[in-house]
Amino acid sequence: MIKQTLLGLAVTVIPMLAAAHSKSEATTPANGATVSDVSELSMRFDDPMRIISVTLISPDGNIDIERETGMDPATEFRAMPVEALEPGSYRFDWRGMASDGHPMQGSFSFTVAE
After folding, report:
1. 66-100 pLDDT, tens per residue?
2. What is the pLDDT of residue 16?
3. How far apart are CA 98 and CA 46, in angstroms?
4. Exposed (0-12), middle (13-18) or buried (19+): which is 99, by Cβ within 10 Å?
5. β-pairing verdict for 24-28 and 65-67
6. How far out from the chain centre does Cα 12 lie?
7. What is the pLDDT of residues 39-64, one digit of tens each?
């Protein structure tokens, strides 16, 4: 009887925990995309997210970006590269705080074509 009760509790609680966190719905550029130019870096979330830190990384190191979105929780985050991106591969890393208080992090990658 105890095993059935614990199993029932786990089946009820686990989906609620999985749904508790915001998740990224879309990025610009799209993850894995090859693009000719990047004028905006953006992420869209299904629930407000406070983006704490962002880094754009190339094979040569970090690239300067300017945040357009502030530190308030939002469903969309936007930033722009300070200078035109050279051809090559890039990774955008982010860390944030979901509306339920859990720390979140993620990344997406893209390539700028020659």
Report:
1. 999 999 999 999 999 999 999 999 999 999 999 88
2. 44
3. 10
4. middle
5. unpaired
6. 28
7. 999 999 999 999 999 999 998 999 99
> 2-31 pLDDT, tens per residue?
655 444 444 444 444 444 556 668 999 999
Structure-block tokens of residue 31? 């993850």
Q: Measure the CA–CA gap between 50 and 58, rounded to whole angstroms.
A: 24
Cα 114–chain centre separation:
26
What is the distance between the alpha carbons of residues 107 and 88, in angstroms, rounded to a whole number?
17
Beta-bridge mates of residue 7? none
Closest CA to 49 of 100, 108, 114, 11: 100
Q: Which tokens sit at 107?
A: 């990344």
